[in-house]
From TrEMBL:
This is Glycosyltransferase. InterPro entries: Nucleotide-diphossugar_trans (IPR029044).
């Protein structure tokens, strides 16, 4: 069974994460049935993180195109080296990934950048029934690909290690039509218990949430994957995406994001990068 594996390249330390990701993938996993798709996005260089709302609705000028010649050339070498499909997409125009669902001009938003990227890859990166999404800042410790492949059944919609390495059924994705949209600022408002219901969900922008009535509860979600997972399950698809999967230990995810982690975490990530570079014999590119 042929499977698409997609990874988007954005953020910092790509000269380390790229070789760690691909060398550990091809060394520790069975890639014989994989078609690998690499999307070169570029990255966000935000204003000072101490400024208010530094990571919300950044304009286009904060986007740095490309991944650098050193990283791009490494990908070209890897493409020539492997015997299975390896496709590179140079998406240096950020507009397709920026938030543009509202009435105003588009801008960069952390959640919508990721969801729009996933939607774009679903539409443009391969056509196999199953597609695996991975974060680039991740090392494959064991063969998680074979483990994921064993659970790719017709009645399954999406499953895997949340925000690390997970697989989705393209048939389920297109049938439910929700796509990877995110919704936040949701509230549960008390109802008069009509028909046995205790709460109704409203957007925080709804005038019925201003002022908030007594007993209102703020709702966590819906983050990437959460909304589509709910809709899939409501339509009978089996889904199991969480961070506590038994095969979570098969990968090491740095969770480096777009540079918004505090200094102590950044130092820890650097130590982990050095550890894996030494262990795998991988050099920066």
């Amino acid at each position: 069974m042929e499977i698409d594996l997609c990874v988007a390249m954005a953020g910092g330390n790509l000269n380390v994460y790229a070789p760690l990701f691909f060398e550990s993938l091809y060394r520790n996993c069975d890639t014989s049935e994989l078609s690998v798709h690499v999307v070169e996005k570029g990255g966000i260089v935000p204003p000072d993180r101490n400024e208010e709302n530094w990571n919300v609705n950044l304009p286009f000028e904060y986007y740095v195109r490309g991944v650098g010649d050193n990283v791009h050339n490494y990908l070209l070498r890897k493409q020539a080296e492997v015997s299975t499909p390896f496709t590179i997409y140079e998406k240096h125009d950020p507009s397709e990934f920026f938030s543009k669902a509202g009435p105003g001009p588009g801008g960069w938003d952390l959640g919508e950048d990721y969801s729009n990227t996933l939607n774009w890859m679903m539409d443009n990166c391969g056509s196999n029934k199953w597609i695996i999404f991975c974060h680039l800042d991740m090392i494959f410790l064991k063969d998680i690909i074979t483990r994921l492949r064993s659970e790719m059944l017709d009645h399954v919609g999406v499953f895997g290690v949340y925000a690390h390495c997970w697989a989705i059924n393209r048939e389920a994705y297109y049938k439910v039509g929700t796509r990877f949209n995110t919704v936040n600022s949701l509230w549960l408002l008390p109802t008069p218990k009509i028909n046995g219901y205790d709460y109704v969900m409203r957007s925080g922008n709804d005038k019925r949430c201003n002022p908030l009535p007594d007993g209102a509860k703020r709702l966590y979600g819906f983050d990437i994957l959460e909304l589509i997972e709910v809709i899939m399950m409501a339509n009978g698809w089996h889904c199991d995406v969480n961070g506590e999967q038994p095969y979570r230990s098969m990968v090491d995810h740095m969770c480096s994001g777009h540079g918004y982690v505090p200094e102590v975490v950044a130092n820890g990530q650097e130590a982990r990068r050095q550890h894996w570079m030494n262990l795998l014999g991988v050099q920066k590119v």
